Amino acid sequence: MRIFGCCAAPPIVGYQTHNVAKGGTYAFGVQFQTVDGNSQINVKDLLTVAAPVGSTAASASDQIWFYDAANGWSKYFYYVRGATKQWRKQGESAETTGVVSNGASFFFVRSGSTASSDTSITLAGAVRPLTTIASFAVAKGETVMMANPWPVGLNITSFNDFNKGTPVGGTAASSSEQIW
Hints:
Layout: E1 13-20, E2 25-29, E3 40-42, E4 48-49, E5 63-68, E6 72-81, E7 84-89, E8 99-101, E9 105-109, E10 119-126
Antiparallel strand pairs: 1-10, 2-9, 3-8, 4-10, 5-6, 5-9, 6-7
């Protein structure tokens, strides 16, 4: 007999693995939370790279980029020097303590200059309860990167949060809400 869980309802855990090519830039969403139910995930624990490329220079390393309208770009790189291997925020000299929320999106940039081959990345964690609302504040004129906070496919018409506020519509792209 195999027992996979006990006691109170354990979280449902899962993972997604994606192939990434040398020199490629890929957009992903944070579709998991920590196993203990925290929707704030440490950037250093966000993903696992099968064959990470690191250096003391960000330009020669794998990178993770986040964007938010209030602060602009936050860029992290895989720092390697001797036995030290860690994710660092560009411009900082220690392992990152930065966090990202479930439902955020990010770019993974595979090193092109020093990577010897393509690789894969794996995102893993607990699936957030479907009863948990995911909301995003979007100010006028703002660009916001957001992602489906659950690891399931959704039809674009399922994004009905735009119906909750006052959606903007128009005949020109510049006067409409846009989903890319």
